[in-house]
Amino acid sequence: MKGNLHRRHLGIAIGYFAIAAVLGLLLRFFPIFSFGFNYRYMVHAHSHIALLGWVYVALTTLLHYCFVDKTTSNERYKYIFWGTQGTLIGMLLTFPFQGYALLSILFSTLFLIVSYVYTYHFWKNVDSKYKKRGSLQCVKAALVYMVISSLGPWALGAIMSTLGAQSIWYRLAIYFYLHFQYNGWMVLALIGLLLFVLEQRDLILPKKSFVRFFQAINIGIVLSFFLSTLWTEPSATFYFLGGSGAVAQLYALLYLWTLAKGKIIQLHLSKLQNVLLRTVVILTGLKMLLQLLTALPYFAQMAATYLDFTIGYLHLTFLGVISFGLFFFMDYFGLFRMSRKSYLFYFLGFLLTECLIFYKGIAAWQEWGVFSGYMSLLAICSLLILFGVLILLIQNLSKNQELHDRTL
C-alpha cells in the first residue's frame, strides 16, 4: 500500500517526540523532586532528540514521500533511514549520562555525516517532473541551509580545545547552528511542502512572484543571523544587518501569504486541517514579530539577560510553528492523522507552558518574583503536551494495525 513505509517512519518520528517530551518533563520536575541525574546532560539529550529525532526524521520522511522517485531510491533510502536511527539511539543512550563526551560526540558526528548522505541522495533522486517547480527550489535551499548549519557543531570542537566553552565563540557557534536549522532548513522546507501541495492541484505561483519571494526569504534568512550576535553588544552595523534580515523575512512571508491564501481555500481542507494551518500562520506571525523586536538594542539585551525569553521563543518556534506545520502535512497527506482530542491536548499544553515561561521572564525583568507553586504548575501543564503526542501516536498505531489486519 502506497505510503506504508513513510507511515512507519513518521510513527518513529512521533515516538522520538514522545521521548523528548518525557525528557522535558523530567527537566520540569527536577526542581520539585530533585532527581539524581545531571540536569545539563538531560538538556542536551532533550534538545538533540527533539530536533534530530522528531523534526529531522519527520521532515526528511515527508520530503522523500513528496519529491523522490520511489522506483529507484527506496532501498538506498531505507539504509540511510536506519543509519540515522543508529546515530539517534546512540545519542539517546549517551547524552543523558555523559553530556558532551567521546561517545555522544561520535554519534552526533555520525548523524551529521548521514544527513549529508541523505541530502546527496535526495538531490540525485528527485522525480524529474518536479525539477522546475518552486517547491523544489525551496526544499533544495532548505537542505543547503541544513548543511550550512552543521558548520556550527564542527566548529565547537576546535573552539572548546582552543578558546574554551566560556568563549563568546562557543555560544555563537551554537546560535549559528540553531538559526540556520529553524529559520533556514526547517521553515523553508515546510514552505516547500506547502508549495508542493498547491502545485499538485495546479495552483502554481506566478514565476516572477515566486522569484521575488524566494530572493527576499533567502536574504532574510542570511541577514537575520546577525540578530543572534547582538548579545555581544557589537557595533550598530550588526543591529542594522540583523534588523534588515528580520524585515526581509517578515516581508517575504507576508508576501507569500497574500499570494497563497486564495489558492489554499481551493484545497478544500478538513476543519482540523484548517485549524492546524491557521495555528501555524498565527504562530509564525508572532515568531516574526518577536524576532523583529530583538533588532532593537533594548530588547536584544533583554532577551540575552533573561533566559526564559529565549527558551519561550525557541519553544514557540519548535513546539509551535514547526511541530504544528509537520502535524498539518502529516494529516494532509493521510500518513498520520491528527484527531481533535490530540490537537486540543497538545495545543492547550503548548499555550499554557508558553504563557508560564514568558510570565517568568517578564517577572524577572520587572523584579516581581513568581507565585508559589509555579514550577509544579509548569510541570503539570507540560504533561498535556506529552498526552497530546501519545494520543496521536496510539490512535494512528491502532488504525495502522486495523488496516494491516484487513489486508491479511
Automatic annotation (TrEMBL):
The chain crosses the membrane at residues 12-37, 49-67, 79-97, 103-123, 143-168, 174-198, 210-231, 237-259, 280-300, 312-336, 343-362, 374-394. The keyword Transmembrane helix applies. The keyword DNA repair does not apply. It comes from the Bacteria. Keywords: Membrane, Transmembrane, Transmembrane helix. This is Cytochrome C oxidase subunit I.
